[in-house]
Each structure stands twice: as C-alpha cells, then as structure tokens.
Amino acid sequence: MTIERTGILLLVSGPSGSGKTTLCRRLADEGEAIYSTSCTTRPSREGERDGHDYYFISREAFEQKVSNGEFLEYAEVHGNFYGTLKTEVLNHLAVGTDVVMDIDVQGADQVRDCDDTSIQVALVDLFVMPQTEDELLKRLTGRGSDAQEVIELRMKNALGEIDNWPKYTYRLLSDTREQDYHQFKSLIIAERLKVSRLKNL
Amino acid sequence: MTIERTGILLLVSGPSGSGKTTLCRRLADEGEAIYSTSCTTRPSREGERDGHDYYFISREAFEQKVSNGEFLEYAEVHGNFYGTLKTEVLNHLAVGTDVVMDIDVQGADQVRDCDDTSIQVALVDLFVMPQTEDELLKRLTGRGSDAQEVIELRMKNALGEIDNWPKYTYRLLSDTREQDYHQFKSLIIAERLKVSRLKNL
Hints:
The structure is a homodimer.
Chain A: E1 9-13, H1 20-29, E2 34-35, E3 38-40, E4 54-56, H2 59-67, E5 71-77, E6 80-85, H3 86-94, E7 99-102, H4 105-113, H5 117-122, E8 123-130, H6 133-141, H7 148-162, E9 170-174, H8 177-191
Helix pairs in contact in A: 6-7
C-alpha cells in the first residue's frame, strides 16, 4: 500500500556561510526532494545552466508573470529580479514530491503570507545558522583575501538576517557537514509522517 | 554553546502488535529519551522490577494521588489502576530531557487535554500501525495458539484503536523494525530543532 500524501515545501534560510545551499543541493542530489529553480532577469554567468541554476528570462517576461500573480515570491536585488513560480512548486506538491527552496528571509515571509491552501499544508521552514558569532565571522572571512570593510558589511548583513530565526518553526545550529545533513534529512523524514498531508482522511 | 531547550514529551500509541513498545524501549536504551514509568495497583509479575516496569503502589496510595491531581493520565483496566505522575514527566522536561510514553488512545486524549503549558509545549504524538488489515491480523495471531474468538476480539479492539490515528500529528506505517526505528528516531531528532522549545526567545 502506497502512502498517499501531498509533498512538503521545505524553506531553508540562513546567512551566507551557514551551509544552507549545500544542504539543499545534497537533499536534491540524493533524490529526496526537488530543488526549486528560480527565474531571474540577470544574465547567466560562466558555467550556469538554464533550468538548473536559474531560468534566465527577460525583464519583460518577468514583469508579465508578476502582474499575472504567477510568483510564489520574488524580489529585486541590485537591479535584477529573482522569483519562484507557483507552478514550479505546486505541480510537484500535488503528486507527493517534496520541494526544497534555498530562500532569504524576505522570500520566506512572502511564502508564509501566500494564501494558497496547498502551500500552507506543505510549508515547513528552517533557519540554519552558526553556533556563535565567532564561527559566523570565520565563515564569512573565507580565504581572508577580502578588505576589512567588505567583511564588516557582510557581518552586519548576516547578523541582520540571523535576527529573523525566531520566525521559523525549526532552527539548525550548524556543526560538521555530516551532522548538519543528518539533522536536515531527519527533518524531512519526520515531516513525511505528518498526518496533515495525508490524503483522503 | 549548549542549546537551551525544554524536553519533548513523545506520546506513542498504536494497536498491540504495532511494535510501539519496542520503539520506545529502544529509544530509551540508546539514551535518547527517558522511558516514562507508570504507577499501577496490580501486583507485580515474575521478573518485573519496581521503578523499571512500573511503580507498584497500593490502591489507597493511587486514589490519594488521583484526588491530589498528581496524575497526567490514569485509567482503570480490568479492576486495576494505571497512571503516569506529572512529576515523573515535568522534572525531566524542565532540564531538557526528552520523555517517551507508550500510551493508549484514551491516555493520549487525557495528556492532550492537560492545561499545563509545559506539557503542551513538550507534546508530540505519534500513532504506529500496520500497513494493512492482513498485516494486523498476522501480528495479532502471533504463534497461532489462540482460539478463533480470542483473535477476533483482539482484531476488533485493534481496529477500534486504529480509528483514532487521525487525531495524532504523526503516523508511522510499520515496515521492518530497522525502517520503523529509523523514522522514529528521525522524528525526535527533528523535534529537537523546534524553535518553540528553545528557552529565552
């Protein structure tokens, strides 16, 4: 007997350096969930593939979709638009496929505010963050080649993002990569047991 | 940095033969949670240890505790009382220790109705059941030494219990022992990430 359930929409936020993108990609690579691909109006960079990294579309096409209400969430960043199409998510959820989204805190707010019942039933949100400010600084400093003011700005932005963690249902304090992934995967395994997503109750 | 959180109170229900007791015991044996020990007025059986299997207390002592409101849940079964003391649970939760309770559906109802905030924050409920009625029958039949009417009565009782699964937040359809335990443990790992149980928000 197959369990008839609708999919999970797992939103993952966190400051840069938290390892959230790696977690999401690995979950998708292991076939546990679909990694939701965003649309963007920015030009593709070397090595980026259309439909994998992003759907690269024109500003006109993007604006048309905005006015049609086709986006689950979207934002303008440094003059470029980024957004996730509702269809990109809903079609998967309906057939019981889990979807994972690497999303910033503003995007997560938009998804939470979406009044589509399928989205609300599917929604699970997680904030990934380093255990201490020292650890955050270490991760943001990277190879140590950046100017002091660049690092300070990144740190300020990261701390601003981190302030949002209490809005989330789950929080993961990052440890080793394997530990983090073990907890992350446990979260999706547990969510699959939720009675609220079973069909024909 | 230690995560400051209060403990989880994991209620596990299911028909006999679902393997719920084995799951709870194993979680406790691995040191992941404390197995909540009930009080009972029935005499101890060969091999049962006071304070491990049950706290064996007199009917007078039990009734006194009932009138003091000391029980989180209690019931009379075949003339004997069984119940879980609030202190047995609350003391562990306060220091961040997770507690697992193997509990019938009526007991779970009583815990859900408890208006103590610490209990409500801690509460997670899971229903464990076989995937099909055939599988249930197989598990209830056991060694095949029981009379037909005994098996029929067990089957009727089990089906009556199973009707209650939609009241639970999580449902586990049992598969192999290892698969079941993997999902069960994932549930507690995921619940430990819940923001609602972190202190000093």
